[in-house]
Amino acid sequence: MSGIKEETKHKAADVPAYESELLRFQAEAERQLGLEEAKRVQWFDPVPRQFLMKDRASTTILFGGLTMAHDYLVEGALAGLGYNVKHMDCPDSESLRFGKEFGNRGQCNPTYFTVGNLIKYLHHLRDVEGKSKEEIVSKYLFITSGSCGPCRFGTYVTEYRKALRDAGFDGFRVLLFQQQSGLKQVTGDESALKLDTSFFLSFLKAVLLGDILNAIGYRIRPYEVVPGSTDAALERCKAFLYKALRDDRWLIPVLRKCRKELQTVKVDRTLVKPKVSVIGEFWAMTTEGDGNYQLQRFLEQEGAEVEVQSVTAWILYLIWEGRYDTLKRMQLKGEDGGRYGLEGKNPVMRMRMLAVADRVLRVMFQTYAHAIGLTGYHLPDMDKIADVAHRHYNNHLRGGEGHMEVGKLILNVVKRKVNMTISVKPFGCMPSSGVSDGVQSLITEKYPDAIFLPIETTGDGAINVYSRVQMMLFKAKQAAQKEFEEALQQRNITQDQLGQYGSLSAFANPLRTSRHVVACTAANAVYGVRKFAHWFSFRRNNQELEGV
Ligand code: SF4
Fold it and tell me: Are strands 420-426 and 173-178 parallel, antiparallel or unpaired?
């Protein structure tokens, strides 16, 4: 309190007379109300880690929130480390209902879906499986990633605890690992949850494999000849990889086995489909359930090829953030001691470590991708995205996807990566709404070729969203058709002649990727025809002569 008085005296010396009078009045009023006597204790929400070694065998770790492939494979990876784990189903409308019933008002939509999904599962354990509240609280815990914000992501863990308490599961453990801290997570000796190198490596492998399977699935499924054959092959691959992760086996032979499975899917890439990129807020664009009205599947049903964002790209963004912030901090020399103004720290070493992390991640991804047959897949260049976005959206702004939404849209148009871009923003999300509603309208002015659709996900209103998507997709289909016709013209091939080339690798091999020229896959396959066409015609003529 004496500190406050000192501060008051100090301020009084510097301010006009009426301000001093106000401060004196305030001090007097506080004294009369007894407030100066009150001991002010800051509220602090501890991060409990009550998962002790003695409970490890009897405790099941619940988690979820990425795509179905990721959640399933992460379960396998953590099982391989000796944990009892269970991934929860993809959040649906029922999860949203639970979230709204027990969550605080005014949350963003992903909070309701993810928090509600946990409550829904605990209700299932209690009401369907007949477990008591005490058993659920003592034998289960939930693990999720956290952040210090700046958006509501920073309050998720508190929101989980509040909703659990109100839903009758007071004391249920929600453990948190900070996504910015990487390997520097704190866990005590007696803690059963070891957030160490092997934990992160296993988790990382599962994330990379989930991304790779998703990328392959979205590439093949729109062109499959037998409906459902891609999903069936992917399910087999997932099962192989789950077992390999659980048994801690070398992944390359397993990925080669998956490759053979995927090669059995018959495709027809002469089908002209617009390529649609789904970007936006991380959770809303990643989930495959009601959280975004099952947007990816809806687009495929409507005749589009979908390009999804990988979780690996998000990790690369976190690494980029670390590099960018460290570099900026190093330029603030003189703010404290030390050569770079960072006394006691080694920013040069940190920059090197982050560069190595970026490189290792990319090498691991491409090694697995090539083994399974995912070729021509480029992980985003984070510096490039930051650079193109920076003219319109400051790289210092964080929350949601930061500048990435802006950068991705520009690159999608300029590099002709896709025919249409959909930005998914959850209701109540300030960072994402600010970007999509505000800055992106400027971008579409500057880049009039962009076919861009921002959609807001509230949990209801699916029909409205579907009809807006259908209207915009009509334009994208025309754009893809135009690219295809231009490709035919350039290669001097008629639509009728195309049938002859249907069995060429570019059109029929499910794992073949043609060189990128334009967005539409069928058009790129046509551009790839020339170098094979003469050989194909020659072989065909020979076969006809030989009566084959
Ligand atoms: S980015 Fe938006 S939707 Fe996502 S956690 Fe933050 S506020 Fe919520």
Answer: unpaired
pLDDT > 90 fraction of the chain, expressed in percent and rounded: 61
Is residue 4 very low, low, confident or very high in pLDDT (cuts 50, 70, 90)? very low
Q: Which residues of 28-61 are buried (b: 16+ CB within 10 A; e: fewer)?
A: eebeeeeeeeeeeeeeeeeeebebeeeeeeebeb
Please give the Cα distance from 537 to 431 (Å, whole number). 55
Token pair of 325, please?
């912030």
CB 67 within 8 A of CB 210: yes
Residue nearest (by alpha carbon) to ligand 1 atom 2: 429
Residue 60: what are its φ and ψ, rounded to 5°?
-105, 130
DSSP string, 373-434: T--S-----HHHHHHHHHTTS-TT--STTTTHHHHHHHHHHHTT--SEEEEEEETT-HHHHI
Helix (H) or strand (E) holding 455: strand 452-457
Band (pLDDT 50/70/90 cuts) for residue 547 is very low
How far apart are the CA of 380 and the centre of ligand 1, in A? 22
With a CB cutoff of 8 Å and minimum separation 6, the contacts of 249 are 243
**296 vs 277: CA distance, rounded Å:** 10
433 CA closest ligand 1 atom index: 2
Q: Would you put residue 534 in left (φ > 0), alpha (ψ -120 to 50) or beta? A: alpha
Q: How many angstroms separate the CA atoms of 85 and 424, rounded?
A: 30
CA 458 – ligand 1 centroid, Å: 13
Distance, in Å, from the CA atom of 194 to the CA atom of 183, rounded to the nearest integer, reads 11
Across 6-15, 57-66, 233-242, the highest mean pLDDT is recorded for: 233-242
Testing ligand 1's pocket by substitution, the residue of 148, 159, 279, 283 carrying the most ligand atoms inside 8 A of its CB is 283
Question: CA 473 to CA 340: how far, in whole Å?
Answer: 52
pTM: 0.86
Among 53-67, 347-361, 422-436, whose mean pLDDT is lowest?
422-436
Nearest CA to ligand 1 atom 1: 400
Report how far ligand 1's centroid is from the alpha carbon of 106 (Å). 12
Mean pLDDT of 318-337: 85
Q: Which residues contact 7 (CB under 8 A, 6 or more apart)?
A: none
Alpha helices (runs of H) in 40-196, residue ranges in sequence order: 68-80, 93-102, 109-123, 133-139, 156-166
Of all protein residues, whose CA lies closest to atom 4 belonging to ligand 1?
400
**Which of 205, 217, 115, 207 has its CA nearest to residue 169?**
115
Short-list 150, 154, 156, 175, CA closest to 78: 175
pLDDT for 106 equals 83
Distance from Cα 426 to the centre of ligand 1, integer Å: 7
Q: Which amino acid is at 374?
A: L
Three-class SS string for 157-214? Answer: HHHHHHHHHHCCCCCCEEEEEECCCCCCCCCCCCECCCCCHHHHHHHHHHHHHHHHHH
